[in-house]
Design brief:
Elements lengths: L1 E7 L4 H10 L6 E7 L6 E4 L5 E4 L2 E10 L4 H12 L7 E7 L17
Antiparallel strand pairs: 1-5, 1-6, 2-5, 3-4
Helix pairs in contact: 1-2
Length: about 110
């Protein structure tokens, strides 16, 4: 099993969520985060004309755990649905998951996905 964490633009959440669901990836957690990367932030002109640098931008972090053989398909779905082609589209991180347990029944392994 693999855990996929994707940091994306908030306005792309619905598109990514719907694209994943359409391909059978229903289990998903979403967390609102702020961060910065290569984009570094934006310069905002306030009402007084004063420029303010905002260096921590709102993003959304998606987390899902998939079977090993579904990893690339899930990553492709996220990339295609989240991509605008402009700096700040986000990042995807993948880490191995050694165990998954359904709390309600105690079941273990891929069947809990």
């Amino acid at each position: 099993m693999e855990k996929i964490e994707a940091i994306i633009r908030p306005e792309k959440l619905e598109a990514v969520k719907n694209a994943l669901a359409a391909q059978g990836f229903m289990g998903l957690n979403v967390i609102g985060v702020t961060g910065r990367g290569v984009q570094k932030g934006i310069i905002h002109a306030g009402r007084t004309g004063e420029k303010v640098e905002i260096d921590m931008l709102p993003k959304v972090k998606l987390q899902l755990v998939v079977k090993d053989q579904d990893r690339e398909r899930a990553v492709d779905i996220i990339m295609n649905a989240a991509r605008t082609g402009v700096i700040g589209d986000g990042k995807i991180f993948i880490t191995p998951v050694s165990e998954a347990i359904r709390v309600r029944t105690g079941e273990r392994g891929e069947q809990v996905l």
